[in-house]
Amino acid sequence: ADWMPRNLYERVEVIFPLKDALLRERARRQILEAYLADNVKARLLQRDGKYIRAWQTQPGKRNVRPPSGTAAFNAQEFLIALAEGKQLLDAIPAPAPRRLRKGSLERKDKLQ
């Protein structure tokens, strides 16, 4: 979930630490990796507060699908199929590289 006002005031969001190593690995491998690889429904928040599709190259460009040669991957559909036993974790594609802003790179260096 994200921290949009509608998500915080119109429904309940729960945040808690995953202390169990197996649960933490499952959340990372099954859920987070799937959502980071999503190129159908994923959006990125821009500095001006607007969202663009994750695969759009620039705000305002009205693409309707991922670039040609890129297989569409919908994380929600994948996770439903995974729960139903119709999909395997190997089906998660590598996420597209994301541009990091200077501040993000500085924080990343401090964490390593």
How would the blueprint of this fold be written?
Elements: H1 5-9, H2 21-37, E1 43-45, E2 51-53, H3 75-83, H4 102-111
Antiparallel strand pairs: 1-2
Helix pairs in contact: 2-3
Architecture overview:
With 112 residues, the chain is mainly alpha-helical. It has one domain. Helices cover 37% and strands 5% of the residues. It has four helices and two strands. A two-stranded antiparallel sheet has the order 1-2. A hairpin with a 5-residue loop joins β1 (43-45) and β2 (51-53). α2 (21-37) packs across α3 (75-83). The mean pLDDT is 78.
Number of domain modules: 1
Helix vs. strand class: mainly alpha
Measured between the Cα atoms of the first and last residue, the distance is: 26 Å
Measured as a percent range, the helix fraction is: 25-40%
Individual helix count: 4
Biggest sheet, spatial arrangement of strands: 1-2
How big is the Rg?
16 Å
Can you write the helix and strand succession as a string?
HHEEHH
Shape label: globular
SS elements, strand count: 2
In what range is the share of β-strand residues? 5-15%
The poorly predicted ranges are none
**Mean pLDDT across all amino acids:** 78
Largest sheet: 2 strands, antiparallel
